[in-house]
From TrEMBL:
Pfam families: HsdM_N, N6_Mtase. The keyword Ribosomal protein does not apply. This is site-specific DNA-methyltransferase (adenine-specific). Keywords: Coiled coil, Methyltransferase, Restriction system, S-adenosyl-L-methionine, Transferase.
Length: 513
C-alpha cells in the first residue's frame, strides 16, 4: 500500500503533464516510465559500482567514461534548457544503445521518444520522479499500479485495464505455485502476471518474512500494513525471475508498460514479447509457448471487432472457424496450456450463449474435450468506465472431461456499477473465492443443489441438451413471489372516491372565478 503523501506526489505529477499539454493518459504513463527507466539505470549502475569496489570484480557498464553526463544524478541538476537538450539528444538515444545488451527490458526501451515539449515541464517531471521511492522494493509495485489506475480510456482494439480487485480474486481462486510457468497471451499492462507475483510473495513468506509497519492512509489515519518478503521463494528465485512470467501483446506501448510493471514489482527479467498471438508467426517464433507450454494462463483478451481470416493461425481455425477474437483467444489458450494446465479467462457474455456454429463449436470443445470447471457471471458495470459490456469468467482445465459445471452469480464487486466506481459495502468476491475453493460436487445431483441460489451446479448432460449454452440465467430457477391485490370492487370504490374528490375541487375552483 502506498501512503496518501506518495499518492499526492503522483497526482501532482499527473496534473503537471495535463497542464503541460499532454492529456493522453497512456502517453503520460509512457513518458513517466521512460524517466523512471533513466533513473533506474543510474541506480543500478551505482549499485554495481559499489559491489565492484567491494569485490574487485568488473561488471558490464551501462555508461562509458564519456557518458557520465547523461546519468540521472548528473543531468537532473542542470538548468531547464540544458537538461532538455541532454535528455532529448543524449539520454533517449542512449536507450537505443542499451538495447544490444541482451536485456529484453532494454529492447523495449530502444524506441523511446521524448514527447515532453516544454523544458520546464521536464524539470518538474524529473524532480518528481527523483522524489519517488524507486529504491524501495516494497512500494515500487504499488506505486506503478497507482499510476496505471489513472488509465481511464479503452484502447483502440478494445483493450482496457482489468480491475485489480477482480484480477486478485481470480489469482486467489487459481492458486499459482512457485514452479508454474504462467502466461497471458494479451497481457496489456501485465496486471495478471504482477498480481500472481504478489500472491506468490504472500504465499511463500515465513512468519519471520512478514514485516508489519504503520503508515498513514488517504484519510490521514494510522493503519498497519504487512509487507511480504517472499523469503521462502529463494530456491525458486531464478525460475521466478526468468521463466515464470510470460506476456505477449502487439501494442509496443503496452509492452513497455508491462515490462516496467513487472520490474517494479520485483521480477528481474520478465519475458514479454511483441507478438500477435493469434497469427501463425506466434507458432514460428515461439513454438514452445504456442503449444502446451504453460501450467496457468490468466487473461482478459480484447474482444472487439473481427480479424482478417488470412492472418489467423490455421491451427486455431481448425478448432473454431471464426473471425471473432474472443472465440479465437479461448482456442489459443487451450492450445498454449499443458495437459492438466488451467486457465481463468474473461469473455463477453456472447461467448456463453452465441448461436453461431463457431460459438457452439467452441463451447462443445470446452466441455467435451476439456474440463470446464466454472462459469462466473460478473456484474455488467464491472469494467466501467472503460466499457459497460456484460462479462463472465470461464475457468477450465485442459484435457480430462466435464461432468458438472459450477455457476456463480457475482452481483456486487465492492464498487458502484456506474462510471464513478466508488467503493460500497456490498461485495461478493470474498464469498466467491471461499465457495470456489470449498466447492464439492457431492451436492450437484442432490436436493442441496438449489438452482435459485447465487451458486449451483449444472450437469454436462443438461448443458449438452441446451446446445452447450452456458448463460447462468438459462439454468437458474426463478422464484416467483405472489403479489396480492385488493378485490376489484374495493379498487373501484377507491377510484370513485378519488373522482368525487377531484370533482369537488373543480367546483370549488369554479366558485372562485
Amino acid at each position: 500500500m502506498i501512503t496518501g503523501a506518495l499518492k499526492s506526489k503522483i497526482d501532482k505529477l499527473w496534473e503537471e503533464f495535463w497542464t503541460g499539454g499532454i492529456a493522453n493518459p497512456l502517453t503520460v504513463i509512457e513518458q513517466i516510465t521512460f524517466l523512471m527507466y533513466a533513473r533506474l539505470l543510474d541506480m543500478n549502475e551505482r549499485r554495481d559500482e559499489k559491489r565492484a569496489e567491494r569485490t574487485g570484480k568488473s561488471f558490464s557498464k551501462r555508461f562509458t567514461q564519456y557518458e557520465q553526463d547523461i546519468r540521472w544524478e548528473s543531468f537532473r541538476h542542470l538548468p531547464a534548457d540544458q537538461m532538455y537538450k541532454v535528455v532529448k539528444d543524449e539520454v533517449f538515444p542512449h536507450f537505443k544503445d542499451l538495447a544490444g545488451e541482451g536485456s529484453l527490458f532494454a529492447e523495449f526501451m530502444k524506441d523511446a521518444q521524448l514527447m515532453i515539449q516544454k523544458p520546464n515541464l521536464l524539470v518538474k517531471a524529473v524532480n518528481m520522479v527523483s522524489d519517488l521511492p524507486l529504491d524501495s522494493a516494497d512500494v515500487k509495485g504499488d506505486l506503478y499500479e497507482y499510476l496505471l489506475s489513472k488509465l481511464t480510456t479503452a484502447g483502440i482494439n478494445g483493450q482496457f485495464r482489468t480491475p485489480r480487485h477482480i484480477i486478485r480474486a481470480i489469482v486467489e481462486m487459481l492458486e499459482p505455485e512457485a514452479h508454474y510457468r504462467i502466461a497471458d497471451p494479451a497481457c496489456g499492462t501485465a496486471g495478471f502476471l504482477a498480481a500472481s507475483y504478489e500472491y506468490l510473495l504472500e504465499k511463500y513468506s515465513s512468519p519471520e518474512g512478514v514485516i508489519t509497519e504503520t503508515v498513514i492512509n488517504d484519510k490521514g489515519e494510522q493503519v498497519e500494513q504487512k509487507i511480504y518478503t517472499g523469503d521462502l521463494l529463494h530456491e525458486h528465485r531464478r525460475h521466478v525471475d526468468t521463466d515464470m512470467f510470460h506476456g505477449f501483446d502487439f501494442d509496443a506501448t503496452m509492452l513497455r508498460i508491462a515490462a516496467m510493471n513487472l520490474v517494479m514489482h520485483g521480477v528481474a527479467e520478465p519475458d514479454v514479447h511483441y507478438q500477435d498471438t493469434l497469427s501463425q508467426r506466434f507458432s514460428e517464433r515461439f513454438p514452445q509457448a504456442a503449444k502446451e507450454g504453460f501450467d496457468l494462463i490468466l487473461a482478459n483478451p480484447p474482444f472487439k471487432g473481427s480479424l482478417d481470416e488470412e492472418d489467423v493461425d490455421p491451427a486455431l481455425l481448425r478448432v473454431v472457424k471464426t473471425k471473432k477474437t474472443e472465440l479465437l483467444f479461448v482456442a489459443l489458450i487451450l492450445r498454449m496450456l499443458k495437459i492438466g494446465g488451467r486457465s481463468a479467462t474473461i469473455v463477453p457474455d456472447g461467448v456463453l450463449f452465441g448461436s453461431s456454429k463457431a460459438h457452439q463449436q467452441l463451447r462443445k470443445h470446452l466441455i467435451e474435450d476439456n474440463q470446464l470447471e466454472a462459469v462466473i457471471s460478473l456484474p455488467s458495470g464491472a469494467f466501467k468506465p472503460y466499457a459497460g459490456v456484460s462479462t463472465a469468467i470461464l475457468i477450465f482445465t485442459k484435457g480430462g472431461e466435464t461432468d458438472h459445471v459450477w455457476f456463480y452469480d457475482v452481483q456486487a464487486d465492492g464498487f458502484s456499477l456506474d462510471d464513478k466506481r466508488q467503493k460500497i459495502d456490498a461485495n461478493d468476491l470474498p464469498d466467491l473465492i471461499s465457495q470456489f475453493k470449498s466447492r464439492g460436487m457431492t451436492p450437484a445431483d442432490s436436493a442441496q443443489n438449489d438452482r435459485s441460489a447465487q451458486r449451483f451446479w449444472v450437469s454436462k448432460a443438461e448443458i449438452e441438451a441446451s446446445k452447450y449454452d452456458l448463460s447462468l440465467n438459462r439454468y437458474r430457477e426463478q422464484v416467483h413471489v405472489t403479489e396480492e391485490y385488493d378485490a376489484p370492487k374495493v379498487i373501484l370504490a377507491r377510484l370513485k372516491a378519488l373522482e368525487a374528490e377531484i370533482q369537488q375541487d373543480l367546483e370549488e375552483l369554479e366558485g372562485m372565478l
